[in-house]
Design goal:
alpha+beta, Metal Binding Protein, Guanine Nucleotide Exchange Factor, Chain A, six-stranded antiparallel sheet, three-stranded antiparallel sheet, disordered N terminus, binds zinc ion
Amino acid sequence: MADGSGVDHSNSKGNTGGDEEKNAMRSSWGSLAKVISIFVFLILVCFGGIAVSKDKETTPITKPGAVNKSNSEWKKVLTPQQYHVTRECGTEPAFSGKYYKNHETGMYKCVACGKPLFSSDTKYDSGSGWPSFWAPVKKDNIDEKADKSFGITRTEVTCSHCGSHLGHVFDDGPKPTNQRYCINSSALDFEKKDKKQESGKTTK
Ligand SMILES: [Zn+2]
């Protein structure tokens, strides 16, 4: 046994030199292959992710009066800022929007599809730098869903007719609802009251 193992040992020792190189070669090829496969995997994940998020844009809304457009169609009818906010869930910088200081009487409509969303009757100065309302003009015209981006749980507000991102709603608003709809000016189109004579038409 001792002899055998000795012979074996010396034999294997002789081979080990060659094997070691081969093993080294093999392991370097192996690790190279691993690196390549990881890269391929990452590329697939990235492109897969992009493909998925691009598809996500056109989740159709099926409710009556819904406005469904592709990203390229939205880009044609919205400014880059409006597109970023409404279709990419962007947020305009605080105190930068055109409506946060607007005190005129009228209706704030969805900039993308024109549905009436918020009345000036419920607008108040929250000091946040974004137009703030304590209620939507019609609950049915907006959708609210949990938004867990940036590690914070908030409630996202979207237009229920076209899916445009509008802003978020918080529970620190004034009476009677105690809600604060914090909405981007870029997602809104204000219509002054005198133009709104046909008030029956506004809540379609
Ligand atoms: Zn809309």
